[in-house]
Design goal:
heterodimer; A: 93 residues; alpha+beta; two-stranded antiparallel sheet; 6 strands; B: Ubiquitin-like (UB roll); FAD/NAD(P)-binding domain; seven-stranded mixed β-sheet; 22% helix; elongated; binds zinc ion; Sarcosine oxidase subunit alpha family protein (chain B); oxidoreductase (chain B)
């Protein structure tokens, strides 16, 4: 798999670390224990498009939000996670 | 010297007759020429019997002339380079080659295990699953060793491979797989557009079938055209030609290929690898992998002397070798009938052409006539004579009459199967094409791949050249280049007509479908009777296509037989899934240089060379090599050394390289806020010039890491982490700062490798520091108390950072200088400390000192402990939120019954403690139900004169003075220990403050 890092260009997937679902939102400090347990432990395993977090460990150290098809490894978008987070977690224009 | 190449033709072939090579097979000497394969050289010497089959130990010869070879597997080379299961058809001959046949005992001609044939009924389809089911213990002790000995493959060398293997990555616009007429044409079309092209060819020579067939292109011998095409490609700087390179897999975004750099040499050239693993990243790919000929299924079709028709032409035309003296050709297609003419031209008597088709074309009839061969239209070979080598065949003609024919060569062809393997590596299923009697590439190809020529079912030379030109131009166009179709060279008319013949009925003897795994038509029929319908099940039950050749010659025949038996058509039956690798890949090539010491990188500290001079013994800590201890002459063992080192630190002074601890530079107006959120304790109130111990949690509430962080300025901190978690913590901070809290104005960067850091510990440490810091810097306790930090210069102007920290519990400093000064600093410290008895100490003594002080380290920060477990619960701020706080409050993590960190000392002070021992109440039975915790770290305390330990035990603080059992069922230890405070030395911290 090859990932187009917005900072470094297209690089081999082995330079990146996978961190899973990027749609999870960290609960508020005083959220119910159930909300925290969901956030920390529960993950969907979709067959198809997924927004997920990757970290360019052997590159620029950027956290990235990537949209990928888990069946084909087709990658639709790669965006710096900071930009996504500042935009409220949604798509970045 | 053995036979003298009696089967070598007087002329012809592309072998170099001026380069005579000597080789041995089963200890006997032979000769061949440069350009031969082991197979062609054996045939030139009249050697036809080259191996025994896997299950039945049937005598086997050479079936093919290429990578699909299922029979002629040999052990090549000797000693550490011995390589089993090498295809004789792929092994290029070199001077001194030593090859040995496999699966025979005591000799190839007389094999005792041939009796396996008598047991054929129990070795039939599914024998792995049903024959030896009971009793279970027998399988491991009796059956398996028996079967392994009887049905073995070759022997591995059993010692380290002395050769090197390397890995390479290359990028291009167009990758062309295969350099036959299709691939060459595709490469020409692509390079002429300016595209960067990589052309991979499994063979040593480029040209594909043109090397083996007598063809004309533009009115000249086809090899002339090949030569010109190759010359043009070689002259193009942006074309990389990789011969002897098999593309074995299509992965996500890259193709895997293995280049056999030195397999054709006795030993690799100096500084050359034996093989090179390529990762090829190409914008577009053209698969021009050609096709593989199918054998016909008839009784005893595995006898040495039965050979694929295309291989017969290869041996005659490419190698100048006659694979026999009297030949019969048995085929169902026009391409193979051409073999008659080639045999005749080479002076081999062609006894008969057995064409399974009732009405062969006029051209076929004329060819048989010209060669003086009897034509049996609609006939079949129904019997084969000769066990160790073909002596004759029985042909049954269309009218049912039997004819006995003398011959020593039977050329067979059931048609050609496109080499579609790579096309289905992304899961696409090949599609059956009735007209071509072939599986064609799936509709859903791996992204960017085009398939052309025989691999796509276009078998004629004219079609191949045209398809190659089109595919190459298209690929380059897709990659962004201006292209035009190259002019197509002229070829002769030809017919590739085929009519399927999936098995010959009414014959005798075992009819093999998969030669390498000894799977016959009867096995397929048995599996069908036993209810196996899916082709994937059939494959696994019969093992058809599961040998190292992956069924290259057998798959389609197996599918067709299954279809026939089940009354389904082939299209519905489908084929099994092709998976990487296309061809066996040596594990050495996949490992590359990542073996032994080089399996992972080695990081050396700045003081490594100095430590080596001091006689250090090193230990691996993650990727780092750290000095473990520094033995001196006369010391009996490591314990004596470590005890001396720890005692010297307590009594005088020592230095230790602590560079490996992670260092993270944190800058920005919100630096303190970030620390506030990742650490459990408070940071905003830390004054500039001071340091503080911190603990951080994972989101699940467990401790992630600990360390000391110093405030260099209002907006600048330098954090230290444990050695093993350095990368993880850096990543975590980036996660927090980029993803969780992007609004914070703060940046972090790892500076672990930029700074050399040395600990100077012991009551004399200040005296040493006074001689190191530059004039004007005051290291007195008043000016620089415990937990101070400063930026300064040392040793006459070297920029440095000084911290007054302590892991040992003694007065201690850590001094950091730019990494390149680390070695000099160590030497300067030793000089400055000489009057005070300074010594270097290693990680073992460091461990002893910290256990004496009850500090948690790696053994305790094991991912399963909370801050409370480690006695650090009170550090958790109640006034702020921090990472991991919510989950740390879970009932399970604040359960008062959780084991907590305590100290332990043996009741019998002479006893030795062992980490890993479990704590049990004295009177309790030794079962897991009574487990109360375990010992995490132990050390021999020089201060106390006996062994001490740290461990986690339930209700520890309430049980001070209680004696429990430390039980180690693994090493047999069973010791009574007393629960004590984890701080064994100087609990008041008097020594720390000086
Ligand atoms: Zn990057």
């Amino acid at each position: 798999m090859r990932i187009n890092c917005p900072h470094c260009g297209v690089r081999g997937a082995e330079e990146f670390a996978y961190h899973g679902d990027a749609t999870l939102r960290r609960p508020a400090a005083d959220a119910a224990p159930e909300a925290w347990a969901d956030y920390v432990y529960l993950r969907d395993n979709p067959a198809g498009r997924q927004r997920e977090l990757w970290y360019h460990a052997a590159g620029c150290h950027a956290w990235l939000v990537m949209e990928r098809d888990t069946r084909t490894h087709e990658i639709f978008s790669v965006t710096p996670a900071r930009d996504v987070a500042l935009a409220g977690g949604g798509d970045v224009a | 010297m053995g036979a003298n190449q009696l089967f070598r033709l007087g002329t012809g072939g592309s072998v170099d007759r001026g380069a005579l090579l000597h080789f041995t097979f089963d200890g006997r000497g032979y000769t061949g020429y440069r350009g031969d394969t082991l197979a062609s050289a054996l045939l030139a010497n009249g050697v036809r019997l080259v191996g025994r089959s896997f299950k039945y130990h049937r005598p086997r010869g050479i079936l093919s002339a290429g990578p699909e070879e299922p029979n002629a597997l040999v052990e090549l080379r000797g000693g550490a380079r011995r390589e089993p299961n090498t295809r004789a058809t792929m092994a290029e001959l070199f001077e001194g080659m030593a090859a040995v046949s496999q699966n025979r005992w005591p000799s190839l001609g007389f094999d005792l295990m041939g009796v396996n044939q008598l047991f054929a009924p129990i070795l039939a389809a599914g024998f792995y699953y049903k024959t030896f089911m009971w009793p279970a213990a027998f399988w491991e002790k009796v059956y398996e060793p028996l079967i392994r000995r009887a049905a073995g493959l070759g022997r591995a060398a059993g010692v380290h491979d002395p050769d090197h293997y390397e890995k390479c990555t290359t990028h291009c616009d167009v990758l062309v797989v295969g350099a036959g007429p299709t691939g060459l044409m595709a490469a020409l079309a692509a390079v002429r557009s300016g595209a960067r092209v990589v052309l991979c060819e499994e063979d040593a020579l480029l040209g594909g079938r043109l090397l083996s067939d007598r063809r004309m292109i533009d009115g000249r011998p086809a090899l002339d055209w090949v030569r010109e095409a190759v010359a043009e490609l070689e002259a193009t700087p942006d074309c990389r030609i990789l011969p002897r390179t098999s593309v074995f897999g299509v992965f996500d975004g890259a193709y895997g290929a293995v280049e056999r750099v030195a397999d054709h040499l006795a030993v690799p050239d100096p500084f050359q690898p034996r093989q090179r693993l390529w990762r090829i990243v190409a914008k577009r790919q053209v698969l021009a992998a050609g096709s593989i000929e199918r054998p016909l299924v008839f009784g005893d079709n595995d006898r040495p002397g039965v050979m694929l028709a295309g291989a017969v032409r290869s041996y005659i035309n490419r190698y100048g070798v006659a694979p026999g003296r009297r030949a019969v050709v048995f085929a169902n297609n026009d391409d193979a009938t051409g073999t008659v003419a080639d045999l005749h031209a080479a002076g081999v008597a062609v006894v008969a052409l057995v064409d399974a088709r009732a009405e062969p074309s006029e051209a076929v009839r004329r060819m048989a006539e010209a060669a003086g061969a009897a034509l049996f239209a609609g006939g079949a070979v129904t019997r084969v004579q000769g066990r160790l080598g073909l002596r004759g065949v029985e042909v049954t003609d269309a009218a049912g009459r039997r004819h006995a024919l003398d011959c020593d060569l039977l050329a067979v062809s059931g048609g050609w199967s496109p080499t579609v393997h790579l096309t289905s590596h992304h899961g696409g299923k090949p599609v059956w094409d009735e007209a071509r009697a072939a599986f064609l590439p799936p509709e859903r190809l791996p992204p960017g791949m085009g398939v052309a020529g025989a691999a796509a079912g276009a078998f004629s030379l004219a079609e191949c050249l045209a398809a190659g030109a089109r595919a190459g131009a298209e690929a380059a166009g897709d990659a962004g280049f201006q292209t035009s179709l190259p002019a197509l060279p002229a070829t002769e008319e030809e017919s590739t007509a085929v009519r399927p013949l999936w098995r010959v009925r009414g014959g005798r003897g075992k009819a093999f479908v998969d030669y390498q795994n000894d799977v016959g038509d009867a096995d397929v029929a048995l599996a069908q009777r036993e209810g196996f319908r899916s082709i994937e099940h059939l494959k696994r039950y019969t093992t058809l296509g599961m040998a190292t050749d992956q069924g290259k010659t057998s798959n389609v025949n197996g599918v067709a037989l299954m279809a026939e038996l089940s009354g389904q058509d082939i299209a519905r039956t489908g084929t099994t899934t092709f998976r990487p690798p296309f061809t066996p890949v040596a594990l050495g090539a996949l490992a590359g240089h990542h073996r032994g010491r080089d399996f992972k990188p080695t990081r050396l500290t700045p003081t490594h060379d100095w430590a080596k001079e001091q006689g250090a013994v090193f230990v691996e800590t993650g990727y780092w090599l750290r000095a473990q201890y520094f033995p001196r002459a006369g010391e009996a063992d490591w314990l004596e050394t470590v005890t001396r080192e720890a005692r010297t630190v307590r009594e005088a002074v020592g230095i230790c390289d602590v560079t490996t601890l992670g260092k993270i530079d944190i800058q920005g107006p919100d630096a303190a806020t970030l620390l506030e959120r990742v650490y459990i304790n408070s940071w905003k109130n830390l004054p500039v010039g001071r340091a503080r111990y911190g603990v951080m949690l994972r989101e699940d509430g467990m401790v992630m890491d600990d360390g000391t962080t110093a405030r260099l300025a209002e907006d600048r901190f330098v954090m230290t982490t444990t050695t093993v978690n350095a990368a993880k913590v850096a990543q975590h901070l980036e996660f927090c700062q980029q993803w969780l809290w992007p609004e914070l104005d703060v940046q972090t960067v790892s500076v672990t490798e930029q700074w050399a850091q040395l600990a100077v510990a012991g009551p004399q440490s200040r005296a040493v520091m006074e001689k190191i810091v530059d004039a004007g810097f005051d290291v007195s306790d008043a000016a620089f108390p415990y937990m101070s930090c400063a930026e300064l210069t040392v040793c006459g102007g070297v920029p440095g950072r000084l911290f007054r920290l302590s892991f040992s519990g003694e007065r201690a400093y850590e001094i950091a200088v730019p990494a390149r000064y680390g070695d000099a600093l160590a030497r300067r410290l030793m000089q400055a400390g000489a009057p005070f008895g300074i010594i270097p100490y290693g990680t073992e003594a460091l461990g002893v000192l910290r256990v004496e002080k009850g500090h948690a380290a790696g053994n305790e920060l094991n991912g399963q402990t909370t801050a409370g477990d480690l006695g650090l619960g009170r550090m958790m701020s109640k006034k702020k939120d921090f990472f991991g706080r919510a989950m740390a409050q879970r009932p399970g993590l604040v359960d008062p019954a959780r084991p907590v960190l305590m100290g332990f000392r043996p009741v019998d002070r002479a006893a030795r403690l062992r980490a890993g021992a479990h704590f049990l109440p004295l009177a309790a039975e030794k079962t897991a139900a009574h487990d109360q915790g375990y010992m995490t770290s132990v050390a021999f305390s020089p201060t106390l004169g006996h062994w001490i330990g740290l461990g986690l035990i339930a209700h520890g603080p309430q049980r001070l003075g209680e004696v429990v059992r430390a039980w180690d069922p693994v090493r047999g230890g069973d010791i009574e220990v007393e629960i004590v405070s984890p701080v064994f030395v100087d609990p008041e911290g008097v020594r720390l403050h000086g």
